[in-house]
Design brief:
The complex is a heterodimer of chains A (319) and B (570). Chain A has 13 helices and no strands. Chain A has 319 residues and is an all-alpha fold. Chain B has 570 residues and is an alpha+beta fold. Classes of the chains: A mainly alpha (319), B alpha+beta (570).
């Protein structure tokens, strides 16, 4: 197991190098002039001259050859000093650190909600296949799949405001320092995002449960006189969980990269919004670092998922 | 030739009385708004300047009136306390107000600072300059030198005194930053030869040539004054918003909110009324608007026309809106380096195809007005009847447009690209459809902000449909931005010696009437050669809770955001 983990971690290095090269190249390929953007704030730029733009470009090191810029940035990343934002001049790690708590809370909360909804719904739908309960859950799931989160989020905000005169407290308060305010702020986005992801997971749970329930060993278990609940939860569900864990892991990885739309609709200060902002502003070092961090998150979550496989299914060994 | 002190006192007295009358009118308007609960037009927008110093120069020898604060009582019966919250679309691009160029940065930063001068907070038209840090100012040699006399006893948030050396350090930095930082308004101080701190309370600015726009610029929030010590140590104004303003920074959580609290030692007696200001960073306009209706925010920028009817009904009468004329316009640029756009008749045909009444409805839901380069109704605008003599600026005429295209000998349909920005969708959709009626078929090239600017500067277009926003109602700012040969955004690449000549004359003319005449000539010249085509000037619908008192929306987003005299009803 130890060797497997070390091997997997070593394999991360070329992956991350590839990602870093790709995102660096893509950012430089995007049209636009970051120096002009900074000087004009993306707006009018009264009095900004081409000379000023050129000077700032030189100051930002953007006139150096691309390979010099890449190596300089990569060396900073290796030392965990990826530099400062071209816009705010703040250290990038500080900027990311300020936004990380919201993103982690939203991601973990949404995945937890989705699992809590999806597994029971998927199991019940499978056990009650083609019965009214299954139809109701099917509508629930298809609704989650087909309604975009920005629409559900906007509707939730609108309905609560218009009919219940309730508006979430603005901003984002720390979970540890202001737990009450934090819950009031986060409950809506977590539920909206959790609902969306539960739709996918519940459909997967249902279909794998249906497969497993038709397996010989389930039939044998029933023939031996085991109670239905025991058969479903003790034998079938455990075997049906592997794909659910895989998808939940992928969802968590995606969310740690930032739930852009949910964060925007609910005005949450997370990494997703920061990533979009950095791309539109051509804030190269920020975008590069966020993409790299997202890749790292995926790698570790995939590794964690593999290890969970072994815990769920004793036949899986990594020796 | 220092201005007579007696005259100054007299002027201040007259002004104070006007302020009271004006304030009363504003309060009356506010009450009327609250009573009807609906929207209203900013009644003050077209008021002429009444103080000693009209913005944009004029030949005001001196000035001294102070708005609000020390000399004028606030309208109504002010109450202390309360927090005013408002959403902004993104984080400030920088925490040094000298380095920023957008309102999302100016709004949360301006309340922490003072400038030498300010635009009168009660004057929506941005036409009147009044005192701020400078109690009075004078120009002894016809605009080549300005002497400012600073208010005594002003202190920064950190307790250090504000002196002329601090003001000098700020202006010097803006003109030529000592650190490797961008200074977007370095060019605005291009006429400044030197800034001298004569003594602790006196500042002298010497110019290379008269520059009547200087005072207007100094009165915008961009010319905020921070401590010299901070500039010396940090290389800029730093990230703590240390100024002498009525509010000071308490917290800034990136991507989330900025919290300002009352400066208990503010130098203007009895101000501010509010305990604090909160700015929430909300990128989604729908969310921000819903929260405004729900009472989370007391101020909201730019309500969409289709949402106006929701303001009263969904806020339970607790919010209203004001329709404000602005210096933001929908505009067309031509790539005159390419055929057929180098032909004046073709450009004129485009102007005739854009029926202004239709356009104002289609693009702005009716919240727009005709204009040339300068806003009609502003200090420098053409009389509307004169503007309407330019083809297209009165009525559209498809047949005349087609006739002009025929005269120009172009083969119809004309094909080309229409560059625009993604978020200017109302404008580019209208333009594309309107021009198609005359046989000009343009392929839409809508890009995001950075890419659209890039294409515009590289000339990768036939026509551009854009929204241009100018900081102030100021001819220098406007023409140097889009119309002169060296204009930053002369994307039409049309270099006209007559425009340049008129620009050079008006930029040094201190007499307001003479300057206005030159500006009008310049406006007419640029319009008549269709260097650009102005579709309309946009009016913003600005949301405000009815509990907010003594606040006047300005045409500029970069003035009157200090909130010093604003108060909330309980």
């Amino acid at each position: 197991m130890q060797r497997y983990v070390v091997g997997r971690l070593l394999a991360v290095v070329p992956t991350l190098l590839g990602v870093s090269l790709l995102v660096f190249a893509v950012m430089r390929w995007l049209p636009g002039d970051v120096a002009r953007q900074i000087l004009t704030g993306g707006g009018a730029g009264q009095g900004v001259t081409q000379q000023q733009v050129d000077q700032l470009r030189r100051q930002l090191g953007l006139t150096d050859p691309l390979y010099v810029q890449y190596v300089r940035w990569l060396w900073g990343v290796v030392r965990l000093q990826p530099g400062t934002s071209l816009y705010t001049h703040q250290p990038i790690m500080k900027e990311i650190g300020a936004r990380l708590p919201e993103t982690v809370e939203l991601a973990l909360g949404a995945v937890l909600v989705s699992l809590l909804l999806a597994v029971p719904i998927g199991v019940l739908s499978a056990v009650e296949q083609d019965k009214p309960v299954d139809y109701v859950f099917r509508v629930f799931s298809i609704g989650g799949l087909s309604l975009p989160t920005f629409l559900v989020g906007t509707l939730v905000i609108f309905v609560l405001q218009k009919y219940f005169h309730y508006v979430r407290p603005p901003g984002f308060a720390s979970l540890w320092r202001h737990p009450g305010t934090n819950v009031a702020q986060m409950i809506e986005p977590i539920l909206v995002l959790g609902y969306y992801f539960s739709a996918v997971l519940s459909r997967i749970t249902r279909s794998t449960m249906l497969d497993v329930l038709r397996e010989d060993y389930v039939r044998t278990a029933r023939a031996k006189g085991l109670r239905g609940t025991r058969v479903v939860l003790g034998h079938a569900l455990r075997n049906a969980l592997l794909p659910v864990v895989t998808v939940a892991g992928l969802q968590l990885g995606a969310l740690l990269g930032g739930a852009v739309i949910t964060e925007s609709v609910f005005a949450l200060p997370g990494l997703g919004r920061y990533l979009v902002q950095s791309v539109t502003q051509l804030d190269y070092p920020v975008t590069q670092m966020l993409v790299l961090l997202s890749a790292v998150a995926y790698v570790f979550i995939n590794l964690g998922t593999d290890l969970i496989y072994a815990a769920i299914d004793p036949r899986i060994r990594y020796d | 030739m220092r201005a007579d002190r007696g005259w100054q006192r007299q002027a201040a007295g007259v002004y104070a009385r006007r302020q009271i009358l004006f304030g009363g009118a504003a309060a009356g308007a506010a009450i009327a708004l609250a009573a009807c609960g609906g929207g209203n037009t900013n009644k003050n927008a077209a008021k002429p300047a009444t103080s000693a110093a009209p913005a944009g120069g004029g030949n005001a020898p001196a000035g001294s009136p102070r708005a609000g604060g020390t000399t004028a009582p606030a309208a109504g019966n002010p109450q202390y306390g309360g927090i005013l919250s408002q959403p902004i679309a993104s984080d400030p691009q920088a925490l040094d107000i000298h380095q920023v160029s957008t309102y999302v940065a100016v709004w949360p930063e301006a309340p922490c600072y003072n400038q030498l001068l300010q635009i009168d907070p009660a004057d929506a038209s941005d036409a009147k300059i009044v005192a701020d840090l400078a109690d009075s100012w004078e120009t002894p040699d016809k605009g080549l030198t300005y002497i400012f006399h600073l208010h005594p006893g002003v202190k920064f948030h950190d307790g250090t005194p504000l002196t002329a050396e601090d003001v000098k350090a700020n202006l010097d930095w803006i003109k030529s930053p000592t650190s490797k930082k961008p200074s977007p308004r370095a060019g605005v101080l291009g006429a400044v030869d030197s800034v001298v701190a004569t003594d602790a309370q006196t500042l002298t600015i010497k110019l290379k040539q008269p520059n009547p726009s200087l005072l207007s610029n100094l009165a915008t929030h961009y010319f905020a004054i921070g401590p010299k010590a901070v500039i010396d140590s940090a290389g800029d104004l730093g990230d703590k918003f240390i100024g002498s303003g009525p509010f000071q920074l308490k917290t800034y959580n990136r991507g989330d909110h900025i919290e300002l609290v009352k400066n208990p030692n503010y130098w203007v007696q009895g101000r501010p009324y509010l305990d604090g200001l909160n700015f929430y960073i909300v990128p989604d306009a729908n969310t921000a608007f819903t929260n405004f209706l729900g009472g989370q925010y007391q101020k909201f920028h730019q309500i969409l026309h289709e949402n106006l009817s929701r303001v009263k009904s969904e806020s339970g009468g607790k919010a209203t809106y004001v329709t404000v004329p602005t210096y933001t316009r929908n505009i067309i640029f031509f790539n005159t380096t390419k055929k057929p756009w180098d032909d004046l008749r073709v450009r004129q045909a485009v102007s005739l195809l854009l029926d202004r009444d239709d356009a104002i409805q289609a693009i702005d839901g009716g919240d727009g007005e005709r204009g040339g380069y300068m806003r009609v109704g502003g200090q420098w605008g053409l009389p509307i009847e004169q503007l309407k003599t330019i083809p297209g600026y009165d009525k559209g005429d498809v047949n005349q447009a087609k006739a002009l295209l025929q005269q120009a000998g172009v083969q119809l349909p004309i094909r080309g690209s229409l560059l625009s920005r993604n978020d200017f969708n109302n404008e580019y959709t209208y333009v594309q459809q309107a021009l198609a009626k005359g046989g000009i078929q343009l392929d839409l090239d809508a890009r995001d902000n950075a890419a659209a600017y890039d294409a515009a500067y590289k000339g990768q277009f036939d026509i551009i449909a854009w929204v241009v926003s100018i900081v102030l109602d100021d001819p220098d700012a406007t023409f140097a931005e889009i119309a002169t040969s060296n204009a930053v955004r002369n994307w039409s690449a049309l270099k006209d010696p007559q425009i340049d000549d008129l620009y050079a004359k008006q930029t040094v003319e201190l007499d307001y009437q003479k300057r206005k005449q030159l500006v009008n000539q310049m406006d007419m010249r640029a319009l008549s050669i269709f260097q650009t085509v102005c579709i309309d000037f946009i009016k913003y619908n600005e949301g405000l809770a009815t509990s907010v008192k003594n606040y006047t929306f300005h045409g500029s987003l970069y003035t009157n955001n200090r909130m010093q005299d604003v108060w909330l009803t309980k």
